[in-house]
Amino acid sequence: MKSAATILISFLAILLLNTASAQDTDPYLGIIPAPASLVKSPGTFIFSKLTVVKADNPKDKAVELFKDFLLNNRGLNNKVVKYSPRVKGKGISVILTARGSENLPAEGYKLTITPRKITVIGKGAGLFYGIQTLIQLFPVDQKIAANLPCLVISDEPRFGYRGMMLDVSRHFFTVQQVKKVIDLMAAYKLNNFHWHLVDGQGWRIEIKKYPKLTEVGGTRQQTMFGNNRDWPDGEPYTGFYTQDEIRDVVKYASGKYINIVPEIEMPAHSDAALRAYPELMCTPDTAVKTPARTTGLYCPTEETFTFLENVLTEVMELFPSKYIHIGGDEANKQPWKESAFCQNLIKQLNLKDENALQSYFIQRMEKFLNSKGRSIIGWDEILEGGLAPNATVMSWTGEQGGIAAAQQKHNVIMTPQTTGLYFDHYQSRSPLEPVSFGRYAEFSETYKYEPVPKVLTEDERKYIVGVQGNLWTEYVPTVAKLQYQILPRLFALSEIAWSKPERKDYKDFSEVRLAKHFERLDAMHYNYRVPTAFEVIDTMMIGSQFTMAPKSVVPGAKIVYTLNGRDPLDTDLGYESPIIFNIPAGEKRTFKTVVITPSGRRSLPTSTVMYNQAPVAAINYTGNSQGLKFTLIKGNFTSPDQLDYAPTDTTGITKTLETAEFRKIRPSSGIVFEGYISIPSDGVYNFSTATYNDTQLFIDDNKLIENEVAISLLKGYHKIKIKNFYNAPAPGARRRGNPTLRIYMIAPGTMDKKLVTADLLYN
Ligand code: ACM
After folding, report:
1. What residues contact 411, with CB distance under 8 A and at least 6 apart?
2. Which of 166, 332, 379, 381 has most ligand 1 atoms within 8 Å of CB, for mutation?
3. Cβ 118 vs Cβ 70: under 8 Å
4. Fewest CB within a 10 Å sphere: which of 254, 263, 442, 752?
């Protein structure tokens, strides 16, 4: 056997890092997002309770931020006086001023620290962001005095729109909880809070003219999130914001230079509104025998337009935002196809089809909002059927919508679900992650995203006005989960939104700078996902000797480990120095770790199996028929283990792992696929699965589950078996996305490869 283990061991070696010395050499002194320019100089400024704060306007909101920080984080009540440049103060001081900001770019600031004086120069948001940076330079401790490094920072944002979306329709979050998200955004220089107030599941904003919107539309029958990911809990779920509460949040956000973009979805995702006012739905043409189930789509009648204009009028009274988001995504237009009214309207307006009708709908709303001095934002489907003349496009399905819109000279906000910006997606491939939407958006992916597509010309690039992260909350029933989903991904978002690409440095960011911010999160009582000790986790390594040297980026964190297969507890061994393992031939050892932060938060357990496995010989397979044998197994399942105890019935041959056809005959079922795959050369192969439900994968009867995903194979054919199950969506519960089962294989020295029909064989 070749020494395959060495490749994997080198993965671990590069993760070794020395936080203390790395921090000293960090060019950004731990600041997130990375400033445009930072020049260190010798010396330190000692901030004490005697330091006087001088400000143009001691009541300015940026100055209030600094005072709050000193009081709440350091127990200091420093004197704040009016700044007058003519009065030469002798003492040590912090000057917060707009003087000298004339040539600074919008939202830009200059921060200078010398041994006796700190000066933050900026206007409005610029001063605010300069103070946010200054705050980050303070140590996270409760001591009275703080040593701040001497330096000069000149900083400005890359994008004018730096956004974060929170869905409060699927699950509702209180005013206090929302304010805590806003605090975090402000601390990391994000400036637009996109509030997804309305969706099929619940209408969450009081509209005085239409009280039933919240009385009826504010309640969903049940949530998806029960004890099981597939079945809802049967409990009605309610919540909405009064107009006073909305005003309070808008004012609070404005105090932190955050604009709130309200979203009122149309024409689809409107089931909640239509539960309250069903007369706004289309009536199917009497000629349609079996009309489509309602898909939460407004009918484009004058009554609907009046209703929406009245709603938006109240929304505009509450939100001063120039932008009003009107949704526009995922409209299934079947009810329009079946409505005689809509078909007549299409003819009358000389429109091409239902897409053009949606475009007409959006354009009418745009005209209304433009007439009130506002602009619309819509999801990228508003491109279908023709873009409204002044619309900004939020590109979510991928980058294509954003590219097309920029080419049509429309402003674009990038938030593709394919590039790590959907914070409802899983943060790692660990099966122990809390249940989330069934895709992955690892932190590194968020960080590496470049919002300006290369295919755009220089001129088109200026239409990319910003970038945004989105948190959809179907799988987010608690505020702890909310914070877990956005942290630390929000840090990565902050850096791609604010910092120039040439200032990005993933290694410094993830291994050094993050450290202090986890401490800050603890001090501010936010929940967050504690990074696990290894970047490569839940894997199996094949070989005879291994060195384990886990590290955590969280300062002062303890790493506990086990070798007996149990998840590590506080009482287990604490890691101190690299451990060498010699594995006897044919045997396995499992090295499990958990990171415990000084505040007591824990990472998920990681599990690394070290297996001195003899390679598995190929079997004699002579067929070449593409596809797999399948067996359907009757029942509703929650684990593939249960398939062994249930009656099988239908069997056959299938060309894909797609279960759509099976679902038609059997809405819920177990399924086993069996066949062969060809292994091109001797070596260690890694396998993984991606689906909504737990899946078991067997290669040559070796069960490769969870952590045990590698196997040493000899060239030739090998048996493959997959055990999976699927359940019918519960009534009323919607499942976004496509629940396709995917199997990936990594051959030695290659990247993930999805197994497709051509790779699957039977006989
Ligand atoms: C979306 O995720 N449907 C905008």
Report:
1. 392, 393, 405, 463, 465
2. 379
3. no
4. 752
Write the CA distances from 56 to 50, 73, 317, integer angstroms. Answer: 19, 24, 32
Q: What CA–CA distance (Å, rounded) separates 592 from 731?
A: 40
**95-124 pLDDT, tens per residue?**
999 999 999 999 999 999 999 999 999 999
Every domain range in the chain assigned CATH 3.30.379.10: 37-155
Would you state the CATH architecture of domain 532-611? Sandwich (2.60)
The string of pLDDT tens digits covering residues 713-762 is: 999 999 999 999 888 766 544 444 446 788 888 888 877 788 888 889 99
Active site residue 525: no
| Ligand 1 site, residue 734, Cβ cutoff 6 A | no
* 469, pLDDT greater than 70: yes
Confirm if 679 and 717 have CB atoms less than 8 A apart: yes
Domain with CATH 2.60.40 in the chain: 532-611
Q: Is 330 in the pocket of ligand 1 (CB under 6 A)?
A: yes
The pLDDT score that the predictor gives to residue 286 is 75
Q: Is 329 in the pocket of ligand 1 (CB under 6 A)?
A: yes
Q: Report which protein residue has its CA nearest ligand 1's atom 3.
A: 329
Asked if residue 583 lies in contact with residue 712, where contact means CB atoms within 8 angstroms, the answer is: no
Confidence category of residue 200, pLDDT binned at 50, 70, 90: very high
CATH of domain 628-762: 3.90.182.10
Rg over alpha carbons for the chain, rounded to the nearest Å, is 29
CATH 3.20.20.80 in the chain is located at 161-504
Protein fold of 161-504? TIM Barrel (3.20.20)
pTM: 0.86
Rounded mean pLDDT of the chain? Answer: 90
pLDDT surpasses 60 at 7? no
Instruction: Say yes or no: CB of residue 528 within 6 Å of ligand 1.
Output: no
